[in-house]
């Protein structure tokens, strides 16, 4: 959107809160204790904006170190544990008698009895990565019981404890700051930028008008000024942050409310979100601006394909109708979970004499809520009803196979600035006939920038098919190269009686490892794989003194397998 002229002044007035707001859900106050024994300092809060997801709990700092004791937040029982290379890493789920579940993630180590139980289950299931439901009578806990040590496992980039509160019945995540946890906060949020959108156009085919707030920080009254716009229907968004008392770290806002002429139009709050809906952040933010390296802008209007949204609408979808030509007083209130707030007030109107026509984007115009199909040369693309948040022109082109060994052309589909909520199905027909052996080694590769994603294909009447959740460049690749198994240090033929562990890294030409298996003297051996960096076995009673043979088997996404055998003395 182009601004014709702007003479704008803003009211940015902070209102400070000491006690927590009264919330309609009436969550129990002070039922849950701090899961650590140090004052709560937040590195991230509930609803904070992250790539492809809302942050679904609190990230509690652990003083830049690991191995702090983690305690049960209330009475209950350990109902589940999860161990995975990414995501939560090592996590504990505790069910409580009041109908809530607390989650503790990125843990370094479980308490001994639980660790022993998990290890037995890993050997029984022959899998290090595990999601284990535990009988309610096995590990009861009392509020304040030691359950684990903090760490930085899984998707964690620095030591901290990820803490969640969920409803047990439906697994909906709730904002832990609404439960009266001892978090000091008297700092109001800050509005950094106002964004203005033409709501007669797709969100993906325009750039917003951005108005920075920095020079208006000292404004404490409504000053004369007017923003003149060229569209009769507009939407507003904000870039905003919050801070906790005593911390310079930026965290997310809790609530924003849009008013037109004193009437509430739309609001959103970070009260409760399901993991099934967390990817919907891409319908809440201006994804195109963020993908281009711009700020996170939270939209105060609801895109037509954003279902199960966090918005509460008084009427319509949050779009402001300026077609009357009158001056509209707009106000945006932004709050945190403790009642601290800031308001932004400005005036806008539509100049009916101003028009502007933009060239139409290339590609097929597709709409949210409609299934669509693109067919182009040896390409088929199926776009489901739930894939798009807003209408968009989906471009497509190909680059012909350039080498004799190429299996297909390279197809560019859509734009990385258009997010997908649901998967799309890509079908590509190979450029040459393939025998059954080579067909089994075909994968579909998606390229985006310098990164790649690889998936095994299914064959449908001569077409290779795979599903993806992002646009990009796609092609079929014949992969007949097995992974490479690389021991960390000398193992074969060595005396490891004084060693503490055995470790391997695995390299693959396409960067995807589907399976790793270690067998010691013919029996499965437990190798961890935190952050997918190295496969590590720590010596224990599964490797007694004496000579041993270790077999390592690895396969990639295409099904190529590598096997290595090592002999050592323990």
In words, what does this structure look like?
- The chain starts with a strand and ends with a strand.
- It has 4 domains: 5-14 and 186-350, Distorted Sandwich (Coagulation Factor XIII, Chain A, domain 1), CATH 2.70.50; 42-179, Glucose Permease (Domain IIA), CATH 2.70.70.10; 364-478, Chondroitinase Ac, Chain A, domain 3; 484-569, Sandwich (Immunoglobulin-like), CATH 2.60.40.10.
- 5% of the residues lie in helices and 42% in strands.
- Strands 3, 6, 8, 9, 10, 12, 13, 15, 16 and 23 form a 10-stranded antiparallel sheet that branches. Strands 1, 2, 19, 21, 22, 25, 27 and 28 form an 8-stranded mixed sheet that branches.
- It is flat and about 90 Å long.
- Rg, please? 27 Å
Q: In which range does the helix fraction lie? A: under 10%
- Spans where pLDDT lies below 50 across 5 or more residues: 1-23, 218-224
Shape estimate: flat
Q: Taking all residues together, what is the mean pLDDT?
A: 92
- The count of domains is 4
Question: CATH topology of the largest domain, anyone?
Answer: Coagulation Factor XIII, Chain A, domain 1
Strand content: 35-45%
Query: Given the structure, what is the number of helices?
Result: 4
CATH class of the largest domain: Mainly Beta
- Reported CATH architecture of the largest domain: Distorted Sandwich
**Overall SS class:** mainly beta
Give the CA-CA distance, first to last residue. Answer: 70 Å
Largest sheet: 10 strands, antiparallel
Count of β-strands: 48
């Amino acid at each position: 959107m182009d601004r014709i002229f702007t003479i704008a002044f803003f009211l940015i007035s902070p209102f400070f809160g000491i006690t927590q707001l009264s919330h309609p859900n009436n969550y129990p106050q002070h039922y849950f204790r701090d899961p650590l024994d140090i004052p709560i300092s937040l590195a991230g809060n509930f609803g904070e904006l992250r790539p492809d997801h809302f942050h679904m709990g609190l990230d509690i700092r652990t003083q830049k170190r690991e191995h702090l004791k983690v305690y049960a937040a209330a009475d209950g029982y350990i109902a589940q544990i999860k161990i995975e290379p990414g995501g939560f890493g090592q996590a504990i789920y505790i069910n409580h008698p009041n109908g809530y579940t607390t989650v503790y993630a990125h843990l370094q180590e479980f308490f001994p009895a639980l660790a022993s139980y998990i290890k037995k289950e890993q050997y029984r299931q022959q899998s290090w990565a595990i999601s284990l439901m535990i009988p309610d009578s096995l590990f009861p806990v009392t509020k304040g019981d030691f359950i684990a040590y903090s760490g930085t496992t899984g998707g964690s980039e620095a030591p901290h404890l990820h803490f969640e509160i969920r409803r047990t019945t439906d697994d909906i995540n709730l904002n832990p700051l609404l439960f009266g946890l001892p978090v000091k906060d008297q700092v109001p949020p800050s509005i950094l930028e106002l964004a203005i959108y033409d709501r007669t156009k797709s969100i993906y085919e325009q750039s917003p008008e951005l108005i920075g707030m920095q020079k208006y920080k000292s404004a404490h009254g409504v000053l004369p000024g007017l923003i003149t716009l060229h569209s009769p229907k507009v939407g507003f968004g904000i870039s905003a942050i919050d801070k906790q008392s005593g911390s310079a770290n930026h965290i997310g806002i809790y609530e924003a409310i849009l008013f037109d002429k004193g009437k509430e139009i739309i609001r959103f709050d970070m009260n409760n979100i399901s993991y099934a809906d967390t990817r919907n952040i891409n319908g809440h933010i201006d994804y195109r601006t963020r993908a281009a390296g711009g700020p996170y802008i939270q939209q105060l209007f609801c895109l037509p394909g954003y279902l199960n949204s966090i918005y509460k609408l008084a009427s319509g979808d949050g779009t402001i109708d300026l077609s009357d030509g009158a001056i509209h007083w707009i106000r945006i209130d932004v709050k945190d979970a403790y009642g601290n707030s800031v308001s932004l007030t400005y005036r806008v109107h539509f100049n009916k004499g101003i028009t502007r026509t933009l060239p139409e984007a290339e590609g097929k115009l597709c709409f949210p809520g409609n299934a669509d199909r693109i067919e182009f040369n040896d390409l088929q693309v199926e776009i489901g009803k739930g894939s798009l948040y807003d209408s968009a022109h989906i471009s497509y082109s190909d680059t012909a196979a350039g080498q004799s060994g190429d299996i297909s052309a390279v197809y560019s589909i859509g734009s990385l600035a258009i997010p997908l909520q649901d998967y799309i199905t890509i079908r590509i027909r190979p450029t040459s006939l393939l025998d059954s052996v080579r067909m089994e080694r075909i994968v579909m590769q998606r390229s985006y920038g310098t990164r790649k994603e690889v998936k095994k294909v299914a064959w449908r009447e001569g077409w290779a098919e795979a599903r993806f959740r992002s646009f990009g460049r796609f092609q079929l690749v014949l992969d007949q190269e097995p992974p490479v198994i690389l021991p960390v240090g000398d193992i074969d033929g060595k005396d490891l009686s004084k060693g503490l562990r055995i470790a391997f890294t695995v390299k693959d030409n396409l960067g995807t490892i589907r399976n790793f298996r270690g067998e010691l003297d013919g029996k499965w051996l437990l190798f961890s794989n935190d952050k997918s960096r190295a496969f590590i076995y720590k010596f224990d009673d599964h490797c007694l003194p004496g000579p041993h043979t270790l077999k390592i088997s690895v396969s990639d996404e295409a099904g190529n397998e590598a096997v290595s055998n090592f002999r050592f003395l323990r």
